[in-house]
Write a structure and sequence with these properties.
InterPro entries: 10_FTHF_DH (IPR011407), ACP-like_sf (IPR036736), Ald_DH/histidinol_DH (IPR016161), Ald_DH_C (IPR016163), Ald_DH_CS_CYS (IPR016160), Ald_DH_CS_GLU (IPR029510), Ald_DH_N (IPR016162), Aldehyde_DH_dom (IPR015590). The protein is built from 28 helices and 40 strands. By secondary structure, it is an alpha/beta fold. Strand 13 and strand 14 form a beta hairpin. The N terminus is likely disordered.
Length: 922
């Protein structure tokens, strides 16, 4: 890191002789990529770098500061030492003075610089230090920030004096310390990028005569020793678990905390506090701890003496880095990979990148870190790989594969889509051979990143509607399970998820979209056997639109912002008012059975993009794609607790979500009756915000000037799409009398061509209804329609075969007072009403006469009539000369008893955000 020792007598901390010049002659004394970036930014800002003073080369590898300065023909001086004993070396000082600098800039200077050099320039010297001075003076400042458990980290730019980091402060900046921060993550996220920028800003302030000189306080000051001493790196297991976690992460990734495991010295990296259930695995002995540690699929779980559990993901044994989950496994050698011709072309590119970073010839056994690379070189390597090969690697890919040949293997595997991230969740799978593939999915609740059994032990049967067979039994969530999920979601919201940048959250949303795409055939098959969806439709719509939704809202994650608002000033002062968009916290989501994965995605993607965490109850009759999604969410990198999925009954789990006092928002899609119950429970519990997408009885009006063939095709899609299990289905079709009979004839003719059958067969048009109770409801619906006088033209009964198949149905002569004209079928039943062309307003009035207002449509070539219809129809969506055309960017939601609030589009974000107004007087 840093620290200078200046020697010679003290000088007073007063403002130095500053001028208003715009640029300066600057000498940079320091090292590392940090100093190199400061050098480049100062040049960009117009300052002249008259000399660079840095360390000697390490073997054939010169310091990055020396390299970048040489490229720009700046004089470079590589100094072994500036002094001998307590005395400055005269020849070195004389060499320095010849560059005639007006200001010394010391970014990451590790050498002891004599006061003859510090004091020589007109504007003296400014220095960077990675702590909020006066706390943590000394060379290992950032390590001790973490090891001491500080909640805040930061850096100081100060005027160098003859003490050890005791000079007056020029500027300071800080950031919160996240629960799993390491030295690397703090540097990469804040200390490097903000420090580089602030060093350049400090030089500008010096140049313009505006640089402050604030004497350091002695209050709260501390000086800790260098952590380079091995004795200071050993874990003291007698301390509390929190102190141990802070100690390990404070030494990650350099120099590393060490302990004894099974009588072998081992270094520990990537530690985190473990809050999940204790996994099974091989037991090992750790130093003086009374409990055995467990090697499991996600690392090494150590139980501290106070009971706190810490998980270690990486170990270094005999200088070799390895996944902690592989500890004790003799077979840790990377697999041999046969490269394609394209993959072989990657190798010289990677070799060139390594050569430029390490400044040496690269062989297959070259070790990245043993050749002198540090943590910032890891960042540079990843960025150059991304720039030149378009692959995104992780820091761990370098740490786990530091040998050139192994690194190339890792890169090739990443290019093929392999992750090897050891973040797959463990569960007892259901395995099913169907659709020429082996399906595997969970059957438990998903809480806090783990699949667990229900507290009550109750189960639900999942029935395949195509043949009425039992697919499996799954765990059924209770009120207690909901409470545990809310606790996990609250912890995640208050911790890692909220502390993550919106852009990083968006990256995880993009990752889940990619995983859904990668597993689309498996997901579509699960959707088909669990809900009856035709496989080809499931691929295109159920899964395809889900993927699109996640990608769309991933793009919104870092674009959520408030506004500045002009208000009247409080004279003689002034006011600034601005708004912030903030997440609610824990949100509940309850979804229906017609599009299980798509409805999950419509709501959850917007909810998570807004920064909330989720407790979600999928429908009890079709929950399996939700559980597969839960599995993929772990692989995508969602922190534990962000997503919790609890299959269960609406009467218990759904009610518990609506009533829970720590859930601040509920999004629901389902029946109007259930929507009423949710609103009531939400109001009586804590007045939580609610958005409801409920029933529909969507009117579709066909005028005689339409394209008749297109109207027939679109009307049938509007009614029969997804077996009629579609919330915006055209529940009532009004056909102008002059074309009514021809329209009906064409529809009946086309209905006869619909193939009803196994939803997995590629030529099937119409699969089974979702479940038995719904099938029986449709049968009774048709009986009531006939009893009230509607004329059945085709269908209206169950298909004579195993499974919940129902014939596509057409009724004519439907009158306004009939049950079929007022209530939603939610099935493949077309209800047709004839109307006269003399009065469009009259038919619009009839269309508006239901309690619902979800969707609507009109077919006509008369744009005036179409726009009049769009203006007067009381529905949230209006289709003109099309139907069922939804898009992830277009808001979706209804009026009246069809609910309120929007899914999809930018408006969906507002359902999961609250607006805070802030006014400042100045």
């Amino acid at each position: 890191m840093l620290m200078l020792r200046k020697f010679v007598k003290c000088r007073p901390t007063t403002r130095f002789g500053l001028t208003n010049q715009r640029d300066l002659n600057v000498a940079i004394i320091g090292q590392s990529s940090f100093a190199a970036e400061v050098y480049k930014l100062l040049l960009k800002n117009g300052h002249r770098i008259v000399g660079v003073f840095t360390i000697l080369d390490k073997g054939n590898r010169q310091d990055p500061l020396a390299a970048v300065a040489s490229e720009n023909n700046t004089p470079v001086f590589k100094i072994k030492s500036w002094r001998k004993g307590e005395n400055a070396l005269p020849e070195i000082v004389a060499q320095y003075k010849k560059v005639d600098a007006e200001l010394n800039v010391l970014p990451f200077c590790s050498q002891f610089i004599p006061m003859e050099v510090i004091e020589h320039p007109k504007h003296k010297s400014i220095c960077y230090h990675p702590s909020i001075l006066p706390k943590h003076r000394g060379v290992s400042a950032i390590n001790w920030t973490l090891m001491n458990g500080d909640k805040e980290a930061g850096f100081s730019i100060f005027w160098a004096d003859d003490g050890l980091d005791t000079g007056p402060i020029l500027s300071q900046k800080s950031c919160p310390v996240l629960p799993d921060d390491t030295v690397d993550s703090l540097y990469n996220r804040f200390l490097y990028p903000e420090g580089i920028k602030s060093m350049a800003e400090a030089v500008d302030m010096v140049a313009n005569g505006t640089a402050p000189v604030i004497p350091q306080s002695t209050e709260g000051s501390s000086f800790e020793p260098s952590v380079r001493k091995k004795a200071l790196q050993k874990v003291d297991w007698s301390r509390s678990g929190v102190d141990i976690q802070n100690f390990i992460r404070g030494l990650d990734s350099s120099p590393g905390a060490w302990t004894i495991i099974n009588e072998t010295e081992v270094k520990l990296y990537k530690s985190s506090i473990w809050t999940n259930e204790t996994p099974t695995g091989e037991q090992v002995t750790v130093d003086t701890i009374q409990f055995p540690a467990i090697v499991h699929s996600n690392g090494l779980l150590i139980t501290c003496n106070d009971g706190l559990k810490i998980n270690i993901e990486r170990l270094s044994v005999d200088g070799k880095m390895m996944a902690a989950s592989n500890y004790g496994n003799a077979d840790t050698v990377q697999e041999t990979i046969d490269y394609t011709d394209q993959e072989k072309a990657y190798i010289p590119v990677v070799e060139s990148i390594w050569k430029n970073i390490l400044n040496m010839e690269i062989g297959k056994d070259t070790h990245f870190f043993q050749s002198g690379a540090g943590s910032m070189d890891v960042v540079r390597l990843i960025e150059e790989i991304k720039d030149k090969l378009k692959f995104t690697l992780k820091n761990d890919d370098v740490y786990m594969s530091p040998v050139f040949s192994d690194f190339c293997n890792t890169l090739v595997k990443r290019s093929r889509g392999s992750t090897d991230d050891n973040i797959r969740v463990e569960y007892d799978p259901v395995v099913v051979d169907v659709n020429n593939m082996k399906l595997q999915f969970a059957k438990q609740l998903f809480i806090n990143g783990q699949f667990v059994d229900s507290e009550s032990g109750k189960t639900l049967e999942c029935i395949n509607p195509a043949d009425e067979s039992v697919i499996c039994s799954i765990q059924c969530a209770s009120e207690a399970d909901v409470d545990q999920a809310v606790i996990a979601a609250s912890r995640a919201f208050e911790g890692e998820w909220s502390e993550m940048s919106p852009r990083d959250r968006g990256a995880i949303l993009y990752k889940i979209a990619d995983l859904l795409d990668k597993n689309r055939e498996e997901l579509a098959t699960i959707e088909s056997i669990d809900s009856g969806a035709v496989y080809t439709l499931a691929l295109k719509t159920h899964i395809g639109m889900s993927i699109d939704v996640w990608k769309y809202f991933a793009g919104w994650a870092d674009k959520i912002h408030g506004q500045t608002i002009p208000i009247s000033h409080a004279r003689p002062n002034r006011n600034l008012t601005f708004t912030k968009k903030e997440p609610f916290g824990v949100c509940g989501i309850i979804t229906p059975w017609n599009y299980p994965l798509m409805m999950l995605s419509w709501k959850m993607a917007a909810c998570l993009a807004a920064g909330n965490t989720v407790v979600m109850k999928p429908t009890e009759v079709s929950p399996l794609t939700a559980l597969k999604f839960a599995e993929l969410s772990v692989e995508a990198g969602f922190p534990a607790g962000v997503i919790n999925i609890l299959p269960g009954l609406g009467s218990e789990a759904g009610r518990a979500i609506a009533e829970h006092p720590d859930i601040r928002k509920v999004g629901f899609t389902g029946s109007t009756a259930t929507g009423h119950a949710i609103m009531k429970a939400s109001a009586e519990s804590n007045l939580k915000k609610v958005s409801l997408e409920l029933g529909g009885k969507s009117p579709l009006i066909i005028l005689d000037d339409c394209d008749l063939d297109k109207s027939v095709r679109m009307s049938m899609g509007g009614v029969f799409f997804n077996k009629g299990e579609n919330c915006i289905a055209a529940g009532r079709v009004f056909v102008e009398s002059s074309i009514h009979d021809k329209f009906i004839d064409k529809v009946v003719e086309e209905v006869k061509k619909i193939k009803i059958g196994n939803p997995l067969e590629r030529d099937t048009h119409h699969g089974p209804q979702n479940h038995k109770a719904h099938l029986e409801k449709l049968i009774n619906y048709c009986i009531k329609a006939k009893n009230e006088g509607a004329e059945l033209k085709i269908g209206g009964k169950r298909v004579d075969r195993p499974g919940y198949y129902f014939e596509p149905t057409v009724f004519t002569g439907v009158e306004d007072h009939m049950f079929i004209a007022q209530e939603e079928a939610f099935g493949p039943i077309m209800a047709v009403t004839k109307f006269s062309s003399s009065d469009l307003d009259a038919v619009i009035k009839r269309a508006n006469s239901t309690d619902y207002g979800l969707s609507s449509g009109i077919f006509t070539k008369d744009i005036s009539k179409a726009l009049r219809f769009a203006e007067k129809i009381d529905a949230g969506t209006v289709f003109i000369n099309t139907y069922n055309k939804t898009d992830v960017a277009a808001p979706f939601g209804g009026f009246k008893k069809s609910g309120f609030g929007k899914d999809l589009g930018e408006e969906a974000l507002n359902e999961y955000l609250k607006t805070k107004c802030i006014t400042v007087e100045y």
